[in-house]
Amino acid sequence: MEKWVWFGCGGASLLAAFAFFLVHRRRKETNPAKYAPMLTTTIFGAAAAMCVVVGWLIATDPYVNRTEALKTGGLASGSIVALYALWLNDRRRRTDESRQVVEEDRQKLEHERQDLERLRTEHEREKTADERFARAIELLGHEADQVRVGALHALAGLARSHPHRTQTVVDILCSYLRRPFDHPRYKDLRDRYRSETEVPTDYEPDDDDITSEPGVDRERQVRMAAQRLIGDALHNEPGCALDLTGAVLDHLALPNVELGTLVLRNAQIYGDTTFDGCQFTGDVDLGRSHVWGAISFSGTKFHGELRAVEAEFWDTPVFFGISAAKYVDMQRSNFHHGVLFDESTIATLVLADATIGDELIGLQDVELTNRDNRVQLPWGWNAVVDHNGKVTRVDPPTDENPDDSLIPFG
């Protein structure tokens, strides 16, 4: 009789567990937010397992000890509870993982939102910069010189705040300097160079003997401001290229800057001009340019070629201490007062068919690194180069000097 009592209690507990399971199941489907773990179902399930096991032991083994039967039933009941605990732990783990995934997604969305905000801000900045850029270019054609200077400074400010625009700004400043321009001071300097046998003293900006229209003087100041702003831009963002083909330059000073290429073909260069200490990663071209004043490249490094074919130097150009990795080509150029290359390192120096005034070619302590083609001098000049490629002596044309410019190697 006792076994049926245990079986009855077990069956009742099992029915109760099943009923609570259905209730929890429906509650989960109707309102997942209020769904609770099936603790009641587990309790009744554990009780059903214990009653069934105890009843089954009593029914199958009449000699079983009741205490042992209860212990065995308790173990079965504990197993159900342990399974429930494992299920809860797994559910908690999956909940934590889901929460972590949600948090990662939230952070990802936040980062995307920040990126979109940053892009929007950058777009607004670029739009504003484009408007300022277009407005500044438009004002470069204004009649008032103060407006043109303001437009130049506005472009320089854009280059400082937007470094990726520096090359574009430099190109615009160079194009402004390529506009046709002349000044009475330039004509006076040209006349003095052509008429005097010695190098004339550089003209002074406040020379009262030179009269000109006020508008021309103001335009000269605008152009010199453009030159200064090019120098500032190169110091802020090295490596830019300068295209000054046919430009009119006045006291251009770009010392100790790094440039890409420099094109000065057909340029008119007035006053003292300096590129001392510069570094050129590209070629430098002064072909057919006219230099009405001193020009200096002292201590400059040329990684590309230096070309000045058919150029005219009315003063003595100074290339003191330069380093030229490739050709220095100055064929058919006219040096009215000589040229200096002292203490330089040059791959190949080409001065073939050049005209040398005052019979001065400074090649003291010059090292020529190209063994196949070291130097080509004008007609009648002779250079002695030792076995290390260093120039030991340069002889100007004399009656005794033969008509060739071949180099004896000592």
**Poorly predicted sequence stretches spanning 5 or more consecutive residues:** 401-410
Mean pLDDT over all positions: 84
What value does the Rg take, in angstroms? Answer: 46 Å
Please give the order of strands in the largest beta sheet: 3-6-10-13-11-7
The run of helices and strands is HHHHHHHEEEEEEEEEEEEEEEEEEEEEE
The main pleated sheet reads as: 6 strands, parallel, barrel
Helix count equals: 7
Q: Give the overall silhouette.
A: elongated
Structure summary, number of beta strands: 22
Strand content: 15-25%
Label the structural class: alpha/beta
Helix percentage range: 40-55%
Task: Tell me about this structure.
The protein is an alpha/beta fold and 410 residues long. The chain has seven helices and 22 strands. Strands 3-6-10-13-11-7 form a six-stranded parallel barrel. It has a six-stranded parallel β-sheet with strand order 2-4-8-12-14-17. Helix 4 runs antiparallel to helix 5 and helix 4 runs parallel beside helix 7. The C terminus is likely disordered.
Quickly describe the structure:
With 410 residues, this protein is α/β, with parallel strands linked by helices. It has helices at residues 2-30, 39-60, 66-139, 145-161, 166-177, 184-195, 214-236; strands at residues 240-243, 248-250, 258-263, 268-270, 273-274, 279-280, 284-285, 290-292, 295-296, 301-302, 306-307, 312-313, 323-329, 334-335, 339-340, 345-350, 355-356, 361-362, 367-368, 375-376, 382-385, 391-395.
Furnish the topology, listing elements before pairings.
Elements: H1 2-30, H2 39-60, H3 66-139, H4 145-161, H5 166-177, H6 184-195, H7 214-236, E1 240-243, E2 248-250, E3 258-263, E4 268-270, E5 273-274, E6 279-280, E7 284-285, E8 290-292, E9 295-296, E10 301-302, E11 306-307, E12 312-313, E13 323-329, E14 334-335, E15 339-340, E16 345-350, E17 355-356, E18 361-362, E19 367-368, E20 375-376, E21 382-385, E22 391-395
